[in-house]
Design goal:
40% of the residues lie in helices and 16% in strands. By secondary structure, it is α/β, with parallel strands linked by helices. Bound molecules: nicotinamide-adenine-dinucleotide (NAD) and uridine-diphosphate-N-acetylglucosamine (UD1). Nicotinamide-adenine-dinucleotide binds next to α1, α5, β5 and β7.
């Protein structure tokens, strides 16, 4: 990734899972992250973890992305101290698929509304570079795999998925309306793992929905067994296939995307798949964990989970060719780091928003 000239970069959702790891990667690349989070799905511990890993006092603001005046004050403050914000990594959003079905208006307001407010403030301050957290969920069940960025978007399976499609549309329209806009739409596949230090990682609140936190909590004895959601799919071992990428690879992709935004001149807005290019089944993830840690994963086969895509993995060539980014860590690395983090985390906090 190389050293850069050190830009001041706002990281919304900076106390969250991917935002905190990306803040560390930004710092390591010579940039200056400024973290913002309303702590609706995170704690200040993550900010302390980022500071520990960076070895300096990274600024943190407890602020909501829908707070127009609060955002304006923050952008103005940065101008006043001679460190204007030059780009934004926008992670802040709600992300629980099931909750979005129960509370679609909350998801629209927070995810789409928050982006709208943030873009208005950015425009007022002439900030054009944004790296946006999108998701492979925009593809739905793909017609062919690996899926590339030209694949059609499918009808969103959930209100959460719709917010990602809607945000991509808002950003595309915003880019059309502004001469200097530079926006990267990063379509993440399945981020897993943690910083190898174990100082930061994913903080699942309540019972985890995602595979890897559920798996590590099971091995830690917090859950009796992992349920594999269906083994009768049309895949080699009958279980669903995903493209799991290490969160530090994902974090480094944000640095590459930011650099692209700040340097490229052709496209104003561009989508990039972020994945490894290889699919792994649920059983392969279990085997990877067992291989990496030497521990066995108690698991049972259960019914299919409604709404699950059968098999999806990325064609990540565009990110390689245009961002110079490629995932380098293995699934086993991610399992080692996820387990390391789980051991540090201990018992879960059961407060969900
Ligand atoms: P996370 O919940 O750990 O982090 C999001 C952070 O944003 C949290 O700390 C939360 O407190 C904060 N936040 C939410 N709404 C806010 C608001 N209005 N103002 C300020 N802060 C707010 O989630 P994550 O896994 O780090 O995900 C980051 C982004 O990546 C999200 O946009 C998510 O939709 C997207 N994404 C995540 C995954 C995944 O598997 N984790 C996959 C695809 C896309
Ligand atoms: C889910 C969301 C997706 C979101 C992503 C990241 C759905 C339908 N999709 O993706 O929109 O972007 O999380 O937050 O919810 N599995 C088990 N047992 C478990 C948990 C999961 O077998 O206890 C399986 C699932 O069936 C799936 C795989 O593990 O095949 C991965 O599941 P998960 O981690 O929830 O991610 P996605 O379903 O890919």
């Amino acid at each position: 990734m190389g050293q850069t000239h050190g830009h001041h970069v706002l990281v919304t959702g900076g106390a969250g899972y991917i935002g905190s790891h990306s803040a560390v990667a930004l710092h390591e690349a010579g940039h200056h992250p400024i973290l913002l989070d309303n702590l609706s799905n995170s704690t200040p511990d993550a900010v302390e973890g980022v500071r520990e890993l960076c070895g300096r006092d990274i600024p943190f603001h407890t602020l909501d992305c829908s707070d127009f005046d609060g955002l304006k004050s923050l952008f103005q403050h940065q101008v006043d101290v001679g460190q204007p914000i030059q780009g934004v990594l926008h992670f802040a959003a709600f992300k629980a698929v099931g909750e979005s079905v129960a509370k679609p208006a909350l998801y629209a307001a927070n995810n789409v509304g928050g982006l709208g407010v943030l873009l208005q403030v950015m425009a007022e301050f002439g900030v054009e570079a944004m790296v946006f957290s999108s998701s492979c969920t925009v593809y739905g069940e793909p017609n062919k795999v690996p899926v590339d960025e030209g694949a059609p978007m499918q009808h969103a399976e959930s209100p959460y998925g719709w917010t990602k499609q809607a945000c991509e549309r808002v950003l595309t329209d915003h880019a059309s309306s502004r001469e200097g806009a530079k926006i990267a739409l990063l379509r993440y596949f399945n981020p897993v793992g943690a910083h190898p230090s174990g100082v930061i990682g994913e903080l699942p609140l309540g019972v985890p929905n995602n595979l890897v936190p559920f798996l590590t909590q099971t091995v830690a004895g917090i859950r009796p067994a992992l349920t594999v959601f269906g083994d009768d799919y049309d895949t080699p071992d009958g279980t669903c296939i995903r493209d799991y990428l290490h969160v530090m690879d994902l974090a480094e992709a944000h640095v590459a995307a930011l650099n692209w935004c700040l340097s490229q001149s052709k496209d104003k807005v561009r989508a990039f798949n972020l994945g490894t290019g290889t699919g792994a089944s649920v059983l392969e993830v279990i085997h990877s964990f067992e291989r990496a840690t030497g521990l066995s994963v108690p698991h049972v086969i259960g019914p299919r989970r409604p709404g699950d895509v059968v098999a999806i993995w990325a064609d990540p060539k565009r990110a390689h060719n245009e961002l110079g980014w490629k995932a380098s860590r293995t699934l086993d690395d991610a399992m080692t780091d996820a387990w390391n983090w789980q051991q540090r985390l201990g018992q879960p906090d059961n407060n969900a928003h």
